[in-house]
Write a structure and sequence with these properties.
Layout: E1 2-7, E2 10-18, E3 21-26, E4 44-45, H1 47-55, H2 66-72, H3 80-87, E5 96-99
Antiparallel strand pairs: 1-2, 1-5, 2-3, 3-4
């Protein structure tokens, strides 16, 4: 499934979920100092770099009171993609977000 990635109100790429695999493709010419280490010159973000990106946006399964956090999100078990959906892919000080409500 594919989802649009936004920076503020502009579509800057797509987030692709295939089973347990996640990857991101950013538009050519997209530039973000905060994310520059994640993507190559074609805008591809590898699965390995997605894990780095995720670590900044979702809590780890080893977090104290993880079951309480999951409960607040309406989840009964730890799932990176479900937690990411709940937070729309946003970090605390991030300008990027994922529109999980409108897959294409």
């Amino acid at each position: 499934m594919k989802y649009k990635v936004f920076e503020f109100g502009d579509v800057v790429g797509e987030f692709i979920v295939e089973g347990d695999s996640m990857r991101m493709k950013l538009k050519p010419g997209f530039s973000s100092d905060a994310m520059a280490f994640l993507y190559d010159e074609e805008g591809n973000v590898s699965s390995q770099n997605i894990q780095i990106w995720l670590a900044e946006r979702i809590f780890p399964p080893t977090r104290v009171d993880v079951s309480v956090m999951l409960g607040k999100l309406g989840l009964t078990e730890y799932s990176q993609i479900d937690i990411l959906r709940a937070y729309k892919g946003r970090g605390d000080s991030d300008t990027l977000w994922i529109d999980f409500d409108n897959p294409f």
